[in-house]
Design brief:
single chain; two-stranded antiparallel ribbon; 2 domains; Molybdopterin biosynthesis moea protein, domain 2; alpha+beta
């Protein structure tokens, strides 16, 4: 999920939070796919920022698994000379978790 200024929005993005007016009425609901007309409406209503779904979250499981294997292979190559060191193994594990999380977010 990313917070973007209305000027940064592009048609095809999906809202990740409902947009409400100053009275609390829903203008656009969570999950709506934005188009040029809706973006123009947000500009007219002077809505400064909105939350949209990050495109990377929409990846399928197969793509995520491919990236996971690529990251693991890269880390194995970088840590190949320190496999007997428990601290370096722990560091490699933490780094793997961080890189995977960053890929998915």
């Amino acid at each position: 999920m990313r917070k973007l200024r209305v000027e940064e929005l592009k048609p095809g993005m999906f809202l990740s939070k409902t947009i409400r007016d100053e009275k609390g009425n829903a203008l656009l609901r969570k999950g709506v796919k934005l188009n040029s007309s809706l973006i123009h409406l947000l500009c007219k209503r002077r809505i400064p920022v909105v939350w949209v779904k990050d495109e990377n979250i929409l990846q399928d499981n197969a793509t995520i698994e491919i990236k996971r294997k690529e990251i693991e292979k890269s880390l194995e190559a970088k840590f190949r000379y320190v496999t007997q060191n428990p601290i370096m193994e722990e560091l490699k594990s933490i780094l793997l978790q961080y890189l995977l999380k960053r890929q998915i977010e």
